[in-house]
Structures are given as structure tokens and as C-alpha cells.
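Per your request, structure below.
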């Protein structure tokens, strides 16, 4: 039987634990300052905001805060209306990751999430396991090519998620990692399990294609072309 999240109250709100063997988890774990004070930060990933890579008892984790985008960010950078604990972005993502990880999908192992309440509003953070030796596809393709077989394998990987009904809200080249173990999908914020017959999969793929084209516009040497995309689709359309 798949295990469920363990929800623990804390002074600032709630902790949701996917890894129930964690020793003495606290809300401090979701503060970059806490890890800095303990000399436990081993790197960062910078985009619109910073994601922190931390180490705890020989475990390597990724700490991510939930930030708003678009016009709403002008009103509040990181506060969301609270409509129920399991509908918060952090716990919804942790729950989906836990289900997919338990089913053997190539996603990061979920660790924990934190929700801090402020009246009608909340802020959220998530901890996931860092995939050893993995790099995002933009970093990979800026330095090397992928074989036709690898592009097909990526298509097969995405098809596996789609056949399970997994909708990835931001399927782009930076949210696909490549390690020695193959391809992995990350960042399932606003992801969901959807009915397979609703034809959202084509839009998901189109988003990914636009992402490759956009990244190539920023980096002309990015090793991507339409032949690569055709190989991806060939793998995607193979029977599972």
C-alpha cells in the first residue's frame, strides 16, 4: 500500500513529511539562512529566484520556495490564498511526487514541505532529493549532442508519464534532467493527474518543443534540430 504524507503542526503552520524516518524535522529546514549558518549549502541554481542545494546527514536535498509569477507577483511575490492544506501548492506537489516515486517514475524522491499561515494567506516551501550527477537538458545540449536513441528514450519517458495521466504544468528543457540513470522530470508545481482521454498531451508536447526553440534562440550552439524532435516523437509514439 502506498504510504501517505505525515502532517505535523509547527509554530508557523504545518510540516508535511513524505520521508517519515526524518529525525526531528523543523520549520528551520526550509530557511536558506539555517543551512548557511550550518555550512550545509553546497550550491545554488539561479533563475528568476534561487533554489538551494543543501546537505543533511549525508543526504543531498533541493530547497525551493514557491514564488508567484506574472501580474499577481506585483501584488504579492509569494503569498497564496489558503483554501485547505492539501490544496496548497507545496503539499499538492509533494503528494504527487510521493505517488509517482512510489510507482517507480523517474522523479526526485520527495522529502518534506512546509506551509506557513498568515491569516487567509500562506507561503510554501518544498524539500526534495537532489538527483546525483544530473544536469538539465539546456546545460547538456549546450555542450554535447544526444544520439537518436537518446531522443527516442526521452520520448518514451514522457509518454510513460502521459499514459499515467500525469500533467506537467511546465514541461520545458530545464525541467528535464539527464543522469547516468537516464532522464528524469522535475518541478511538478501545479502538476496533476488528469483523465487520459482529454487530449492535453499534445499541448504539453508543444510546450516542450517551444522550449527547445526558445533556448536555442538564446544559445545558437544548442544541439537541437527538427530531426531530434522527430526522434523524440518516434519514441513517444512507440507502444508502451
Amino acid at each position: 500500500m502506498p504510504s501517505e504524507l505525515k502532517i505535523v503542526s509547527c509554530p508557523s503552520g504545518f510540516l508535511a513529511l513524505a520521508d517519515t524516518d526524518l529525525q526531528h524535522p523543523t520549520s528551520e529546514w526550509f530557511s536558506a539562512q539555517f543551512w548557511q549558518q550550518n555550512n550545509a549549502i553546497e550550491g545554488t541554481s539561479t533563475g528568476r529566484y534561487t533554489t538551494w542545494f543543501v546537505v543533511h546527514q549525508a543526504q543531498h536535498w533541493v530547497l525551493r520556495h514557491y514564488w508567484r509569477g506574472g501580474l499577481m507577483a506585483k501584488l504579492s511575490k509569494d503569498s497564496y490564498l489558503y483554501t485547505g492544506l492539501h490544496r496548497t501548492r507545496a503539499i499538492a506537489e509533494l503528494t504527487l511526487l510521493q505517488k509517482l516515486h512510489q510507482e517507480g517514475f523517474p522523479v526526485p524522491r520527495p522529502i518534506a514541505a512546509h506551509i506557513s499561515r498568515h491569516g487567509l494567506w500562506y507561503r510554501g516551501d518544498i524539500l526534495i532529493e537532489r538527483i546525483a550527477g544530473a544536469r538539465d537538458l539546456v546545460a547538456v545540449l549546450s555542450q554535447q549532442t544526444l544520439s537518436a536513441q537518446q531522443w527516442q528514450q526521452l520520448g518514451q519517458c514522457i509518454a510513460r508519464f502521459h499514459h499515467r495521466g500525469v500533467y506537467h504544468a511546465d514541461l520545458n528543457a530545464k525541467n528535464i534532467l539527464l543522469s547516468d540513470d537516464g532522464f528524469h522530470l522535475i518541478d511538478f508545481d501545479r502538476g496533476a493527474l488528469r483523465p487520459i482521454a482529454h487530449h492535453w498531451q499534445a499541448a504539453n508536447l508543444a510546450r516542450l518543443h517551444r522550449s527547445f526553440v526558445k533556448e536555442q534562440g538564446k544559445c545558437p550552439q544548442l544541439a537541437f534540430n527538427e530531426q531530434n524532435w522527430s526522434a523524440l516523437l518516434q519514441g513517444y509514439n512507440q507502444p508502451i
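The first strand starts at residue 6 and ends at 10.

Regards,
D.
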